UniProtKB/TrEMBL annotation:
Similarity annotation: Belongs to the peptidase M35 family.
Cofactor(s) of this protein: Zn(2+)
Domain Lysine-specific metallo-endopeptidase: 219-350
Pfam families, per database record: Aspzincin_M35 (PF14521)
SUPFAM superfamilies referenced in this protein's UniProt entry, alphabetically: Metalloproteases ('zincins'), catalytic domain (SSF55486)
Biological process annotations from GO: proteolysis
Entry keyword Phosphoprotein: no
Protein name: Peptidyl-Lys metalloendopeptidase
Gene Ontology molecular-function annotations: metal ion binding; metalloendopeptidase activity
Signal peptide: 1-19
This protein's UniProt keywords: Hydrolase, Metal-binding, Metalloprotease, Protease, Signal, Zinc
Entries under InterPro entries matching the protein: Fungal_M35_metalloproteases (IPR050414), Lys_MEP (IPR029463), MetalloPept_cat_dom_sf (IPR024079)
Species of provenance: Grifola frondosa
Amino acid sequence: MHSLSALLAFVASAVMVSATPGLLVQVTGPAAVHDIQNLQVVATVVNTGNESLKLLKDPHGPLSQSPTDIFNITNGSGDSPDFIGIRVYFAPSYSIEQGNPDSFTVLAPGESVGIQHDLSQAYNLTSTGSGQYTVAAKEGVSFYYVDPATNTSASLQADVGYPAHNVSVTGSLARTDLSKRELSARDYNYCSDDQKAALDIAIPAGVALVANANAAIQEDPNGNSPNFVRWFGQPDVPRRNHVAGNFQRMSGNVLADFTWNCEGQHCEPETGAYVYPTEYGTVYVCATYFGLPLTGRDSQASVIVHELSHYTVNGGAQDFKYGVPLCEELAVDLPIVAISNAASYQYYAADV
């Protein structure tokens, strides 16, 4: 902990000369744990810039305790454990519009906040074994913050604090209770009558989006359409085929047989919906979801497309970028990443 204190002192002395907003993420924790349920770390987020930042508690970032894939964990051989956590729909613009204080963390220059994370909820170490591990925030970890000039979301890439945290893990390497974490019967689970009525309308709308998107991509064999270019980059047959294959898989999903759970344990004010990628057929919809419009780019119908794309059987899309501007930039700058970005599938389907 002395090294972290020294780091914070250094940051406090440096903020006055920083010319731009800046963040740093440092991971600390115990040197050794027995059994994975004791594998908990603290991610400390430090404002290294010279202005206050109103940060959104993005479920994919260190400010949220949701079990998402935000840490780089490796053993002595450089191997990483299996990710078993959740993939989440998150709309920065909607969170800003709602203005719920619980959805934000404000850090003044030099100020920091530490959030505890239970790594056993997100990772299974069975394949990588007992022994020494290093844990750090993933390189390129980004935060959304509120731009005070426009009251819209902006993105900021944080620095990763080093050295990484080192921890020895022995005993059990996978939790045995997670298979029972949210068991439910088919159909609607823990949903009110109003929520059931909303889903009765939203689910067919989501099915229609998938069907229309699948038809559109099949009619665009080279990826020449403006819609493909906007969300997945310049025409390219291999990338087009990747996208087409995923939409075709999604079009075969029978949503009438899915379980729709309205009280998932990882529902937070800023979370719209989430799935466990390997647990096909169960979607967790949160209170925020029901505040979205029925149709549109960020809507109840398009969120269904987003969540379907996360399932491993549908291609296993991840959450690299959120929001229209950042997803458009992703298609231009890194189209090979855009074809694995859930929000890109969501927006493509909404725009067909």
